[in-house]
Design goal:
Elements: E1 3-7, H1 11-23, E2 27-31, H2 37-44, E3 48-52, H3 60-70, E4 77-81, H4 83-87, E5 102-105, H5 110-122
Parallel strand pairs: 1-2, 1-3, 3-4, 4-5
């Protein structure tokens, strides 16, 4: 069973995502802030990390993604953001500044979330 970590400050999003993913056979751990995420990653050892870009501060997710990589953790990271819908800003691609494997724009449809998980696990 694949293990997924969802890090997001939106409690409703976390609850809905966890319910959906668990109903589809995944083990899901959630964290509502970036502060304890490294400890959770080291204890749970997830197969995928979904990470919101903006939480308590506008760059929490970016800072955490960089910290994860500096710790030597190679787990695929999918960045989540609703910024584009509000501002029209597009993050573009994952690179050294934003060390991730992919993006998902919020709001995320159940179909898109499940497809993203399946595609990441195939790689």
């Amino acid at each position: 069973m694949a293990k997924i970590l969802m890090v997001d400050d939106d409690a409703e999003f976390l609850e809905a995502s966890k319910t959906l993913l668990e109903a589809n056979g995944y083990a899901v751990t959630v964290s509502s802030n970036a502060g304890n995420a490294i400890a959770v990653i080291n204890s749970v050892k997830p197969d995928i990390i979904f990470l919101d870009i903006m939480m308590e501060t506008p760059d929490d997710g970016i800072v955490l993604a960089n910290k994860i990589r500096k710790e030597g953790i190679k787990t695929p990271i999918v960045m989540l953001s609703g910024v584009g819908k509000v501002t029209g800003y597009e993050y573009g691609k994952c690179d050294e500044v934003l060390p991730c494997n992919d993006f998902l724009e919020k709001p995320v449809s159940p179909k898109d979330l499940l497809n993203k998980v399946k595609n990441i696990l195939k790689k």
